[in-house]
Amino acid sequence: MDIEKLLNKLKLDSFVAFDFETTGLDSKKDKIIEFAAIKFNNGKPNDSFQTLVNPERSIPLEITRITGISDGMVSNAPIATEIASDIFKFIGNSPIVAHNLPFDKAFLNKLKFQHSSKEVKNIGFDTVPLAQAFFFFLPNHKLGTIGEFLGLDIQKTHRALQDTEILGHVFINLVYEASSYSIDVIDKISSISKGRYFNNKTLYESISSELKRSKNYSTGLVSSKINKSLPSPIFYNDGSNPNPLFSPEEFFSENGPLHKSFKIDSYEKRENQIRYTEFIRHTLSDGGIGIIEAGTGLGKTLSYLLSALERAFVEKNQAVILSCNTKTLQDQLFQHEIPKLASALDMTFSATIIKGHRNYICATRTNNVIERAQIYLSDYDVQSMIVIIIWIQWTKSGDFEECPGFLKRSTGKIKELIQNEPGFCTGNICNSNSGCFLGPLRNATQDADLVVVNHSLLFYELEEQKILPSLKYIILDEAHNVLNSAYNHHRTTLNNQIIKDQLSQFSNSSFLIDKNNKLIKFLSNNSPELMNVLQSFIKSNLDILDRSDKFFKKLIESSQNNYSKEIHFQQVYKINDIEEYFIMFKTELKALKDSIKFSLNKLKYIKSLIAEINNDYKDAEAFKKIDRTGNDLKEILSSLNTITDNHSKDWVYWETGSFIRDQFEITLNAVPIDIGSFLRSNLFDLPESIIATSATLSIDSNFDYFINRFGLKSYEKKPIICKEFSSPFFYPDQCNYYQWAGDIDPNDNNYPEFICHSIETIYSNMENRMLVLFTSQRLLGECYDLLNISELINNTSILAQVSNASRLSLIKQFRINKGGILLGTNSFWEGIDLPGDLLKVLVVTKIPFDVPTDPIIQSYNDKIKQAGGNPFLENSIPSAAIRLRQGFGRLIRSINDDGIFLNLDNRVITKRYGKIFESIIPTPMNKFSTINELNIKIKRQS
After folding, report:
1. What is the pLDDT of residue 434?
2. Which residues, including other chains, have CB under 8 Å from residue 175's CB and lie 6 or more apart?
3. pLDDT (0 to 100) of residue 628
4. Is 455 annotated in the active site?
């Protein structure tokens, strides 16, 4: 069925796509500055209407930056009420389509009411929830990202008419994709939608009606054009070679197994890769701790995988754990490097990739929510569950991370209702779903030779091993991130929302009024006392929520004046004296703790009553929820005690505050100041052999910084061997390094203008893709504003990590924009791979020192000072140097790459410590003291 015929059958042969640009997000106080609408007939644009609108007020700079619409452009435009009749005449009674319809419809309704005292009654469709469901795999669901995925022209998005045409085509593609699903899937959507009202409901009703009318019960109305295949978390290779070749010298040789499996002529043997592999091989077999730096381009992942697989082969049934920090590296290992190794060795082995249980969906619990949607779900939640119903058709892993469409829109409540809980996916309850997703994965992991995990799961397993088959051999990649992962693992965090989320399942009586629930029927007839106690338990949890509201409300009233509404990111304040800080909230704090203790006592009584009931009901989900809620209550109480009572001089305490939609929220935090003792006793003591590897673990071949931070100074339980293996790249030939040596420094008021002038100079000479790395969101925003009013805006696209811009989306757009300029902060300093022409110029705006006011940094530095050390030399400089090396590593990614590195921080020249930052860049420095001098040098060398 072609698209024209499909739209006709679904009564969408005619619709109007529309878009507003406005001065802000609040329809009550903000104004329209542009309106555009396009009428689509039979799937094609047929007529359009567009006008700028005078908002009768100044347009905020942020809006001008996003839309390109300035005050001057709208000064002679009509006001909204003057064009209202034309707008509604154009729309007529057609179905309307918008991207985030509630936002656009709010402005449309306001305009309609001003025009005719009526509301807009047109049937509406919203492409945001539709895209979140049917393009669930996209990293975000902004119009530009969806348009790019569909191959539409997105170069001019954020002007209303261009956005509207893209929107119409996006909607048509979404309708087509939704129509590819069978009646079983559509019926599930219809089931949870009964009695609800939400945009897009009529689409599902139309698809269902047409499927039933055509008696098409096994397939959709059309065949999907989109590949939605998702990877399995279990890898098995059935090889034919009983004696695989593990010798690094032979494996990586010109005629070795790896070269033969590549089936290419241009294979290059790397001596350092062979020596690196041999070192890991011996460390794993001899025992001990290997701290190993492997330069960019060495091929470290394949090297340690070869050694790990040999160890698993030599010691039968002995797994090797491979721990990473980022999903990018996990995917690279599991989807590319392990299959590559399997192809080369042709041996039988298995591998799994696994995370903590809350990362996985439970099919049994999901079906339970679908069956009881009327009780559990709001209208908004229904649309979140539609995403799950679609995604679960395709997932092999059940890992929520595969489904950004759900994670981006889901409330914590829904995920709590459908995520795996202990006792489900690996217990009797989930037998009807074959152990769900996590059950088979855990079973496969027990027999695996290689197990890929993230640092977070590894730290949980080190304390209480439940998932991993063995911790005898561990390889830590991205080891420079182990410190942050350890701090995150040990950090205690608590706010009002966390308490609400954790008690969500037992802070309302929804499950008790479900007349179709067999357990409830049984309890009503056989254990009225338990029913009464359960109701009392719910009431006590409501009391906790009430007292939590009062406690955090008083905290907010006390602290709110310390925070600025103008700052759009979290603000941090260190708590120096816990006792003094909480003295004003003593009454509310005690009341909150007492109410939690009261609920825990109720829980004990409930469990004693459960022990007396029929065994057929003891494994019921409601009782599993009770266990989970009990654990959550204990966790909340423990967190409260850690933060407010159990004060330790070895811990740091702080509050964070942020404004979310004008609502101020406070979060309390606590963590050990020095995480080294945990790493020493848990991470390094436990395994027989452990490898910590990264491209950046040393400074001038000195590993002292990480030895100290890992808690390994004066360590005697195991031998520690540190080794450095350099990159195969010829940096002096591949990279030109320009260093600012003039008077303007990072504290100068003119520094943003200087950065932008430097960028313009480089770009005018190179006209190639450029990545500019910042250490603060504020400076990035200032430079972005300046670049948007410079000549550059007419010559190239400028992408920036501002507002809620997605890192993945920005990188994708950067890849397709020839000569684009990308401005990024923290997450762009590492983990980005842009080889060849994808990146030719790298600019560092400041040496990436840690923020000195960060509570952990501040407290750790104080600890060094108290011990008679120099925190700047012992912590600040090494940490910044490691991060600068990570940043520099974004530029040269292969032996064929070349490019320019520009450091605009003159402290490399003016400060004594600058020599350290010069020495870590592996190519000679070219100093320049004026922009003109930079211009001349680049022209001379290009």
Report:
1. 55
2. 6, 7, 10, 12, 203
3. 79
4. no
pLDDT at 364: 85
CATH number given to 731-941 = 3.40.50.300
What local confidence, expressed as pLDDT, does residue 825 receive?
Answer: 92
Domain range summary for the chain, segments of one domain joined by +: 3-213, 246-350+687-725, 355-447, 492-672, 731-941
Residue 811, pLDDT score: 86
Q: Which is it for strands 32-41 and 44-52: parallel, antiparallel or unpaired?
A: antiparallel
Averaged pLDDT, groups of 10, the chain, 942 residues long: 93 95 89 95 95 93 81 93 93 95 93 86 95 92 87 65 92 97 95 91 95 88 93 95 93 89 73 96 96 94 96 93 92 93 95 92 89 84 94 94 86 82 62 72 95 95 91 96 95 93 71 57 72 85 94 89 71 88 93 95 84 63 74 93 90 88 84 95 95 94 95 94 94 96 94 95 90 94 88 84 74 82 92 91 96 92 95 95 96 92 97 96 95 88 70
SS3 of residue 248 by DSSP:
helix
Report the alpha-carbon distance of residue 54 to residue 41 in Å, rounded. Answer: 31
Sequence-distant (6+) residues with CB within 8 A of 399 are 233, 355, 359, 360, 437
- Reduced to 3 states (helix: H, G, I; strand: E, B; else coil), residue 553 is helix
- DSSP 3-state of 33: strand
> Do you know the residue count of the chain?
942
Q: How far apart are CA 22 and CA 17, in angstroms?
A: 17
CA neighbours within 13 Å on the CB side: how many for 736? 17
SS (H, E, C) 788-815: CCCHHHHCCCEEECCCCCCHHHHHHHHH
Nearest alpha-carbon partner for 406 in 793, 650, 137: 137
**What b/e sequence results for 824-836 when a residue is b if at least 16 CB atoms lie within 10 Å of its CB, and e otherwise?**
bbeebbbbbebee
CA distance 55 to 520: 58
**pTM of the full structure:** 0.90
Decide if 707 contacts 275 (C-beta within 8 A). no
What distance in Å separates the CA atoms of residue 158 and residue 147, rounded to the nearest whole number? 12
3-state SS assignment for residue 725: strand
Q: Checking DSSP bridges between strand 720-725 and strand 320-324, what pairing results, if any?
A: unpaired
User: Kindly report the CA angle at 228 between 225 and 230, in degrees rounded to 5?
Assistant: 160
Residue 375: what pLDDT? Answer: 79
Which distant-in-sequence residues (6+ apart) come within 8 Å of 455 by Cβ?
323, 324, 325, 476, 478, 481, 482, 485, 486
Q: Which residues contact 749 (CB under 8 A, 6 or more apart)?
A: none
Catalytic residue, candidates 99, 115, 158, 568: 158
| Class of the CATH domain delimited by 3-213 | alpha beta
Structure tokens at 84: 């209202």
